[in-house]
Design brief:
The protein contains no helices and ten strands. By secondary structure, it is mostly beta strands. The protein has a four-stranded antiparallel beta sheet with strand order 2-3-4-8, with no helix packed on it. It has a three-stranded antiparallel beta sheet with strand order 1-10-9, with no helix packed on it. The protein is elongated.
């Protein structure tokens, strides 16, 4: 997989997302609970843009009348038909064996830690003041 720098961390605020074109694919990067997640920006049902999906919590019920919320903001609810997916791996909750959103590995690295390319040009001092979000496709 090739690595692509898609944004600085400050471009995607907590609870927000950003759509990027990586190798001809629309990928949406979410910033939730201090982590970044990258998914294909297309619901597998009818193609709704997941950048407009609601970021909701996982709701479970250990017994009748008792509900527990967990993983707040890590579940995506499709804006068109309400299908829900796990942001960490793209897995659906209604048909986990057959329906899934493509997910991509994400890393956050400081600018001075990024891998150097094969070409060398004249350089000037640069100050790094932020980190970058990197997606592998």
């Amino acid at each position: 997989m090739a690595r692509h720098i898609v944004a600085s961390t400050s471009e995607i605020p907590p609870g927000g997302n950003k759509v990027v074109d990586v190798a001809g694919r629309d990928i949406v990067v979410f910033h939730v609970n201090g982590e970044f997640f990258a998914l294909l920006n297309r619901c597998p049902h009818e193609g709704a843009p997941l950048e407009k999906a609601a970021c909701v919590a996982r709701l479970t019920s250990p017994e009748p009348g008792v509900y527990e919320r967990s993983r707040v903001g890590e579940m995506l609810r499709c804006p068109w038909h309400g299908w829900e997916f796990d942001m960490r791996n793209g897995q659906s909750w209604f048909d986990p064996k057959r329906v899934k959103i493509r997910s991509y590995p994400v890393a956050v690295e400081r600018g001075d830690e990024l891998e150097k390319g094969p070409y060398v040009a004249e350089t000037f001092p640069v100050h790094v003041e932020d980190s970058y979000v990197i997606v592998e496709v």
